[in-house]
Structure formats: structure tokens, C-alpha cells
Amino acid sequence: MSEPHCNTPRTPAWLSWFVGRLGYGLLTAWVISLVVFIATQALPSDPARVILGPDAPLDSILTLQHQLGLDQPIAWQYLRWLGSALRGDLGVSLDSNVPVSHLLWGRFGYTLVLLAGVIAVVVPTALALGVALALRRDSRLDRWGLSLLIFLKATPGFLLAIGLVLLFSMPHMDFLPAVSILDPDQSLLRQLRFLVLPVWALSLTALPYLTRMVRAAMIEALASDYVIAARLRGVPERRIVWRHTLPNALVPAIQGVALTLRTLIGGAVLAEVIFSYPGIGTALNAAIQMRDLPMVQAIVLVITLAVVLINLLADLLTVLLTPKLRTARRVTLIQRNRRGITPWWRRSRGDA
Amino acid sequence: MNAMTEIDSAVLQVRDLRVELPGEVDVVSGISFSLQAGEILGLVGESGSGKTTLATALLAHARRGAQIVGGQVNVGGQALLSLDGETLRRARGSLIGYVAQDPATALNPALRIGHLMRETLAVHPLGLDREAQQVRIRETLQDVGLPDEPEFLRRFPHQLSGGQQQRVMLALAFVLRPCLIVLDEPTTALDVTTQAHILDTLRRLCKRQGVAAVYVSHDLAVIKDLVDRVMVMYAGRIVETATREALFSRPSHPYTRGLLAAIPDVAGRRELQAIAGHAPAPGQRPTGCSFGPRCERFTDACSRVEPTLPVDVAHAVACWVPHEQPLQAVALTPIASVAAHTQAPLLTVSALNVAYDRQVLFDINVQVQPGECLALVGESGSGKTSLARAIAGLGENATGALSYAGQPLPLQARRREAGQRHPIQYIFQNPYRALNPRQTVYQTLSAPLEHFFAVKGAAARQRVEAVLMRVSLPASVADLYPGSLSGGERQRVAIARALLCEPRLLICDEITSALDVSVQASILDLLRQLQREGLTLLFVTHDLGVVRAIADRVLVLKAGRVVEQGAVDEVLDRPQAAYTRTLLAHSPSLG
Amino acid sequence: MNEPQTRKGLLITLLVVAVALLGPWLAPHGPTDMVGPVYGAPTGAAWLGYDFLGHDVLSRLLSGGVSVLWMSVAAASLALAVGTTLGLLAGLSRRRLDQWITWSADVSLAFPDLILVLLIVSMLGRAPWLIVLTVSIAFIPGVIRLARASAVAVAGQEFVEAAQMMGYSRRRILFKEILPNILTPLLVHFGNLLTWGVGMLSGLSFLGYGVAPPTADWGLMINENQAGLLVQPWAVLAPAVLIGVFAYGTNILAEGIGRSSAGTGAKQP
Q1: DSSP-assigned beta bridge partners for residue A348
Q2: Below-50 pLDDT ranges, chain A
Q3: B77 and B23, same structural domain?
Q4: Higher pLDDT, B485 or C263
Q5: Same domain, yes or no, for B512 and B483?
Q6: Are B382 and B418 in a shared domain?
Q7: Is the pLDDT of residue C125 over 90?
Q8: Whether residue B349 is found in the same domain as residue B498
Q9: Does residue B326 fall inside a structural domain?
Q10: How many CA atoms, within 13 angstroms, populate the side-chain half-sphere of residue B430?
């Protein structure tokens, strides 16, 4: 299986794979825009009536329909919406008559800070805890740790948040604010204490999955043949953990972080509502309650596109960090059902 | 037995080594032997004999769950088992090296070769500066036959061939210049030609550098030309140890004789004799001699007291009734002359081409005569498995024409009629995946009966029990799940499943590669019996010894093309093609 | 079933199910009867006090489990059935169909669970069957991925090829050879689906998009009474605890199934 190194192709294989993956991502993004549009504008029998409520007078409905362009053919509506979205114009909020983009970016920024805070807390903790538990596998610490993680994983996120609110609303415990009333004029960095509880609540929900994944990957790597071979060569245990196993455990962790981010976004909506944090979640909640169609469309679109981007980055990092995929002639991440290829007994091609 | 008082240059001394599993179940016990500098010792045993446990115990390592509980291991004067922590770590590698069985998994896929070599030198205090380290690395690479350019050192393991990977493992062991190297079946995963080269390199290095070696193997034929002394293990004990000449010409222990009689030899066809029964698992060893229940020389004394191995004797045997006479050369059985081809061939393959992402078979033409055993021989990548699968109806991406008993045979099994499907049966290579783990043996076996012959209920039960008896399995196996069966037993169940379909052509795809020598002998015996009863066999293998033992005609494949074909005696004694000659030259042989 | 964890999980889950199913008969008052002061403290007549409208918390608690339970079980079962079918189809079919199904699953996975459900429910209404449908749609892509991966792994094994060689019908191979061997990871995932389902449904109720008041529902109770959290915590805590216990029970059950199957898995060399 020796690769002839004299004729390395000019474009590394992973680059062409990435271009393909990018195209796939763009296609996915386009379909998502379709789904968002259909769910909000095309499906409901009459969005105007949905917005104004069942008791609205007929001429208000007709005015709104004309205003929103709902009396035009549906395909035209979609193209118009998509076209303006691509130009950055996400419409005007029905509730406050301010362009959506103005409202959004501030809120989006706050949520980004929140999520960044959670990632900054969860990833190092999960790595440290996962490695520590894997090294002390089956010890008392391991068993207690796993039980705690299972308990955290089982509890729905919003209950944890409510529990925290309850805890810090009690007298003598109010050194952390239970409600995050941020002043938009002040810089966020000065008001970090408002972030603590939401970050804490979300971290508790995200920690179990990532920690257990790191732990499982480390255990598998520590039991592998190459670690035993290294140990028998006299490589010190510390070096084995840091240089031989951790890099191999890192790659599955990347996919885990991507998955975590996806569930975090959903959890953030609940957490923001509970803590009254002025992020994109509370904006979505309010927009849905107010039937603010352009806001809802814009927020959902932005969120889903962010998820697509995160998955793309995760796949790219996976390929770049796995030498076997990075140097392969053809990159395949998904295993397909191909029959009759490699015999079970992994006989290598024989050239001495 | 104080090692200090003995005046010898023994590089390795083992005394009363004992490794246990939880519950005081011993895996190996009572192991005592010694090794001189530059001497190569072959450690032979079948699966479950404890040879791998012993090999790693020499480095004071036991697999997860096992523990070294007693004995001494002295390497180069140092008592390894009493070392701990940092001293033990330094001893591993610099004093005693280790080469694992499968190089593909023993090399970290994320680290470059050069990094591994440099790291190995860096973690041991050898007193070499960077310049000297690089020189040492280059020298070692040259010694093992690898290129020493910096470009090669920047490769990852998956960019090397299997032979190169194993040479890297050798280099990693030899670069520290230890006084002893332990090798655990290092060539099992390699082709015959690669294996021969590696063994050659190993012998050269050991002799030149004066390094002692313990070579673990399940195959006596492989080590015949490599080792100076041989140690045979059974059920966790050493049963015989002798010099190479003595062991192969005058084996004393009945088990050693049984092993030698079961190994197929490429030099000439002999009747293979299987050893009845199977080895006891740890914790289930009988009182007295562990081999007793399977031994034909069994006496009362054997069941009462366990025989001990005398130490410091050149040819030591742990047996109450050892053989005294030298091994008789077993007469070669002449192969029945191939009947004149008056009958029409049973199976014809014409212009078969198979291509997956690249072409694996080029324009193959084969004919199989009824009642014969045709062997398909080749190394990995030769396409022999693809050919067998295409005939069985499993090959995708195949073009060409097949005909069976004069009728055209579709390439896809689904398109064949039932009358063409049941006479052609296929036995897979991996017995561990050939049976549905969620069905009992009876369910697996009765399914084809119902499918092809509409036989159900009591009649089906009767037939299942009859076929189980035919493959030498007890009828009670029928209600077990495959998870409770050993590899050899599962392979027999697979054969039983094929037999129930009333086959005329049986295609066997390396069915004994995963099995022990003695089990292989009994399965080959069964197949020969079936051939005598009229079955036609198509036997795919890489082992020329098995070809000599069982086949009438042989077809040699290389890179998807037929290189040579003909009667077994003709091809193996008077090979025409250069490739066949190379294969023969590199095949290990007892003769 | 021998695994202690499985038994513990089963016990806990069944306990909560019993409370939810038998509760309405055991409740001292009707769930919508206003019988006491707003946010009244627990007394001998009302062990858990009164809620924001004066209902007896205990009665509402006992009557409020059914909706959460049946909806999460329904959503999980629907997701499992549809997802397994599609996943098997994808894993065992030609390249085209496989790519189609996988790609649709990927697109759906781009929507964070809650967002998708919120979107649909807010636009199309709060009928219970619609909520169940949307929640299961959120779960289906994950099941597809799992079923597909398991099916591909099993289909590559030799005993499936042996069945093909025998000429067994495709349906027989699917049901007898492949399905029994992928059952275990699917069962473990079902436990996870139940846990997530409970969390999502109660979260939805909490946000106000679940069952409509004045029906008693654990998630809704948390929403309704959160203003009085400091005065009368039981109105929030009691349903929260029950939700948590049910989620915990199904989780432990799933873990137990996974662990026992790992122990009795087929011996591999």
C-alpha cells in the first residue's frame, strides 16, 4: 500500500473534498431557507390572519397582506425574500417597525458571547474530567463521576436553570443576579456577572455528553495495541497520555463539540427566557408570541446557517487532524455498504 | 537456584514464573528456562497455551486482568520483577525489546515514523547527543533493510506496506541495542515472501549483534530455519524443550509429536493426523498431566501427578511416558492419478473480469472437474477470494460467463434458480462472523432445509443432528448460540450448514487460516472424507503446505492473472513459472 | 434484565408512570377546582399547598402526568419506527437512495430541536397530535443516522452474505438477519428519546406552547407558577421533581440495556 510519492497530485485530495463539502453545505443552506420560508409563509393558510389574530377586521388583513406581499404568487414571494436576505436586508420587524438587522445583530452578539462562554468552560472541563476519569477507570472517583454525569444528563436543562434561579434568589445567596438585565449602553465586559448563571446552567447540560465521549475515546486509545507497544518500549506514562493518546481522542471530541453546539442553541432559548437574558432566544420567543413574521424568519435562518457552518468546520478539522484522511488519495467520511473488499484477516500487500 | 551463584553468560533466566487471573486461576505456571547471548529460542504453542502471556511477562507486563504473582525474571543480571516505576520503565526497551504481532495496530496512526524512532532514543538515558542519535537511527534503518532518507522518516504508518511496518517495529526494538528481544508472532499477518525476508533479516541481526531472541509462534514450520532451540508450551506449562535438531528428529512429548504430525508440509503429501479433543481453558485443567485426556499413551500415573520439567538438561520433557525413538519419516501417500478428462467439467469459468475501484481479475478461464479438489493459490491482492466469490454468486462488478453442469450460471446468486443455488456452497474465512449471533445453531441449520427442501419439524431435527455428527460435533450444540462456541466449532457449523444443502461443489475460502494447526488438520481430514464421498472442492488458500495435503490440481494466481495451473505434484515439484518458484522457495517446510 | 441498573431504571420509570396513570383517581380534588387561597402554603388538607389560581397543587400534580407521558412515548415510538425504516432503507440500498435519505437527514439535523418544534407549533397551532408529530420529526434524523450505521455494519458481515447466497428473500434477510442484530443500540437510543422527549415537551409547556390551560400538565404548572417561586416553591418543585425522576429513570434504563448488551455481545477474536 505504499503511495508513490514522486507523483503527488498538485491539489491535495482533502482540498477537493473540501470544495465538494462546501458545495454540499451551500445546497443544504438553500434547502433550509426553503423550509423556513414554507413553514412560516407558505404553510399557514393565511399568515396575515395568523399575525393579526382571528378577530381582526377584513380590511386590516387585506392591508397587511398587501404590505407583506402576500397577494403575490408564492414563488415570487420566496425569491424576493431570498434576494433581499442575500443582500443583508432581512425585512422590517412588524412589532417595532425597525429593520430586523438592526435588532438582530446586537442580540446575536449577546448570544454568541453566551455560547462562547459556555464552550470556554465546557471544553477544557470535559477534556480534563474525561482524561482524569479514563485514567482512573473503575475507581471510586470514576463511578461517582459517572453517576453525577448521568444525573446531569437526565435532568432537563430548563429545570437545572430554574433550580439555579431558585438557589440564588434565596436570601444570603444574592451575590449572583438571578435575572440578567444587561444595560446595552455599557460594554459587556463590565457586566460579566450577569453571564455567570446562564453560562453555568448551560454548561451543566452540555458537560455530560462531551465528558463521556472524551472518557470513552481515551479508554479506547489507552487499551489500544500501539499504547501497549509504546509502554513496552519504555515510553513514560505521562508522555503516552499527552503525546500518544490525547491527540487520537481529540478528533472524536471535535464532532462532539459540534453536536453539543447544536443542542446548546436549543437549550439557550430556554435558558435565556428563564434568566431574561437579552439574546437571540428571548428575541425569538417574543417574536413568536407577537407573530412577528420577518423576525422569526430571520432568526431561524441565521441559527440554522450557523449550525451548517459549524458542521462544515467540524468536518474540515476532522480531516485535517487525521493523518490518514489528510494524506489519502480519496477522502470518504461516511462508510458505505461495499461488499467483498477487504478480507477479514488484514493481510497486507507484500512487498518486503 | 540463585542466579548469582551460577557461572554462566545467560542473558535471560526465568525461574518458576507464574501468571494468574483473578480467582487464583493460573494462566502460566512453573516456567523456568534460560537463554544465552545471541541464541534464538522458539516458543511454540497453540491458542490458549499461554505463550503470549509468557512473552509479555518477560517484560514484567501482564494484560488487563492478569497479574504476575511469582517467580523471577533476570535479564542481563537485573531482576525485572522486583523493579518498579522508573527503573522498570528504563529497563523496558533498553534491556529487553518487544515486537508485536500486528504492525498495523501497533504503530500509532497519528505519529510519523521518524518521531517514533527519535522518541524511543530520547526517553532512554543512552548518553547520545543529537548527532549520534541520528547516526544510530540511520544505521538501524539500514540494518533492517529500510531506506534511511529523511523523506521516509516523515511518513505515517498507513503509508507503508505491511512488510515495511514490521521492519519499522524491528527497527524500534533494535535501535536501543538491547540484549534480548521478544517477538510475538511478528509475521502472522504477512505474506509468505515478506515473511521469509523478515525472518532472514532477524536472524542476520541477532547473530551479528549478539542479541538473544525469544520468537513466539504457533507454527513449527516457520521457525524451523530460524531458531537454535525450541520450547513447546501446552496449557500454560512448558512440556518440552530441546535444540532444533533434537526436537525435529527426536521429539519426546506426545503433544510435540502430535503437532508435527498435524502440520501440512509443502515438500510432500502426508496423512495429517489431528489431535482429538481440545486444550483446556485456564481454570479447567485436569489433575495430573494437562495433556493426559488427549494422549494415546495415557496411564494412571499421568492422572495423579503433574509431570515436571527437569531444568538445565539439554533435552527436557515433562512427561511420564515420553517417546524414546526418533521420529519415523512418514511415508508419502501417492496422490490418486487424475482421472482422464472424459467427463464434462462440473464448473467452467470463461473470461471472468472483476473490478472494484480497480481491476482485480483479468480474463480468467478455469475448469473444475467433478470429484476433484482444485486449489486456488496466491498472495493477498492476487484476486483468489474475488474469484471464489464470483463463482459463489457474491461477486459484484463481475463480467464473464459461468456454466455449471453444462447449464449457464448467472453471476448473481439472486438470479440463479434454487436448483443451481443449493449445489454450490461457500464457506467463509472468518468463522466469527459467518453465523448469525442471534440465532441458535439449530435455527441457522434448519433454515436452508426449509428453504430448499421444505423439510420441517421432526424430520428437520433428525437431519440437523445427523449432519452435526458428520462434522464431529455433539448434538447438544444445536441449542447453543454461536457466542458459546470456539472458532473451530463455528467453522464446523458453517460446514454443516453447507452440507445440509446437499452440495456438489464446495468452495472453501481460507477456512483454516484462523484456526490452530491441530484443528486445521481435523477439518482438512473431514474435507478429504467428503471428497471421497463424491464432493467437488474448490479450496482457496495461501499456504502451499495445505495445497500439497489436500489438492489434486492447483491454480496459481498473481495480481489477477493465472500464472500456472496443473496437477499438484507437477506444479509443486517442477514449477514452470518464476513466481511459483519464488513462492515455493519462501514457503516454510518441515522437510 | 439481569443488570441491576436496568431493573432500577425500569422500577423508577414504572413508578412515575403509575403516578401519572392512576393519579387522576387518587386526586382529592379536581384539577381545575379552585379550592384555596392563591399561593397558599401547604396545610393538612392540601399537602403541597395551592397554586397561582388557588388550585390544589397535589391534585393538579396527580392529574398532570398523562399528557407528558403519552406524548413523549408517542413521539419516541414514532421517531423510532420511521427513523429505523428510513435508516435501514438508506443503509441497504443503492447509492442514490442512500444519498437522498442521508442528505435529508443532514438538512433536518441543521435545525436545533427546539427551534424546529417552536417554529411549526407557533405557526400551525397547538393540537397535541401536531406537537407529537413535530417532536418526532426533530428526533427522526438522529435515528436514521444510528439505524443506517448499524445496518451497514451488520450487512457487511459474512452471515448476511451467506443468507443472500442461499437466496432468501430480501424481506426475510431484513427481518431475520439484520434487524435482530441492530435492536440493541436502537433500544438504548429509545431510552434516550424518551428522556429528551420529556425534556422537550415540558420545556414547550413551560414556554407556553404545549397543552393549553387550564389542563393540568407538569410543564405548564412550572410555567404558571414561576412568578410565585419564592413564596410557594412546591407548585414549581413538585412537577419539576417528577419530570426529573421520569427522565432519570428512562435514562438509567437505557444505560442498563446498553451495558448488559455490551457484556453479552458476540465474542470476537
Answers
A1: none
A2: 1-7, 338-352
A3: yes
A4: B485
A5: no
A6: yes
A7: no
A8: no
A9: no
A10: 18
Cell of B366: 478455469
At which of B459, B479, B502 does a domain end? B502
Q: Is C91 on the interface with A (CB under 8 A)?
A: yes
Residues of A in contact with B97 (CB under 8 A): 233
Q: What percent of chain A has pLDDT over 90?
A: 11
pLDDT exceeding 70 applies to what percent of chain C? 96
Q: What is the CATH number of the domain that holds C115?
A: 1.10.3720.10
Domain presence at residue B524: yes
Whether C26 is covered by a domain: the verdict is no
Do both B199 and B143 map to the same domain? Answer: yes
Closest by CA to A178, choosing from A186, A188, A167, is A167
DSSP helix/strand/coil, C265: coil
Q: How many domains does chain C have?
A: 1
Same domain, B369 and B469: no
Taking the Cβ of residue A244 and every Cβ of chain B, the question of whether any pair is shorter than 8 Å is answered with yes
CB spacing of B448 vs C180 below 8 angstroms: no
Its sign, for the CA torsion C200, C202, C205, C210, is positive
Q: How far apart are CA B24 and CA B39, in angstroms?
A: 34
Comparing alpha-carbon positions, the chain C residue that sits nearest to A168 is C230
Kindly determine whether residue A43 and residue C244, on different chains, have CB atoms separated by under 8 Å: no
* Contact call for C255 and A284, based on CB within 8 A: no
- Whether residues B85 and B127 fall in one domain: yes
Task: Determine, yes or no, domain membership for B551.
Answer: yes
Does B194 sit within 8 Å of A341, measured CB to CB? no
pLDDT at A2: 43
pLDDT digits (tens, 9 = 90+) for C193-218: 988 888 888 888 888 887 777 788 88
Distance from CA of A126 to the nearest CA of B (A): 22
Give how far C98 is from chain B: nearest CA, Å. Answer: 18
Average pLDDT, chain B: 87
Query: Is C155 within a domain?
Result: yes
Closest residue in B to A329 (Cα–Cα): B159
pLDDT over 60 (residue C153):
yes
Grid look-up 465528558 returns A211
- B131 and B30 inside one domain: yes
> pLDDT category, B337, cuts 50, 70, 90?
low
The CA distance from C181 to A94, in Å, is 54
Would you say the C-alpha torsion C213, C217, C220, C222 has a positive or negative sign?
Answer: positive
pLDDT surpassing 90 at residue B230: yes
> Average pLDDT, whole number, for chain A?
80
Q: What is the mean pLDDT of residues B476-480?
A: 90
- Per the structure, the complete domain to which residue C213 belongs is given by 32-263
Q: Which of B199, B227, B255 lies at the terminal end of a domain, its last residue?
A: B227
Angstrom CA distances, A185 to A188, A189, A316, B117, stand at 9, 12, 38, 59
- For residue B411, give how far its alpha carbon lies from the nearest alpha carbon of chain C (Å): 11
The answer to whether position B308 is within a domain reads no
Domain assignment of residue C186, yes or no: yes
Q: What confidence tier does B8 reach under pLDDT thresholds 50, 70, 90? A: low
pLDDT of B40 over the 90 cut: yes
CA distances from B168 to A245, B96, B157, B200 (A): 20, 17, 9, 15
Half-sphere exposure of B369 (CA within 13 A, CB side): 15
Q: Do A348 and B191 touch (CB under 8 A)?
A: yes
Range of the domain at B591: 345-423+505-591
pTM of the model: 0.83
Residue C117 lies in a domain: yes
Q: Chain B residue with minimal CA distance to C168?
A: B451
- ipTM value: 0.83
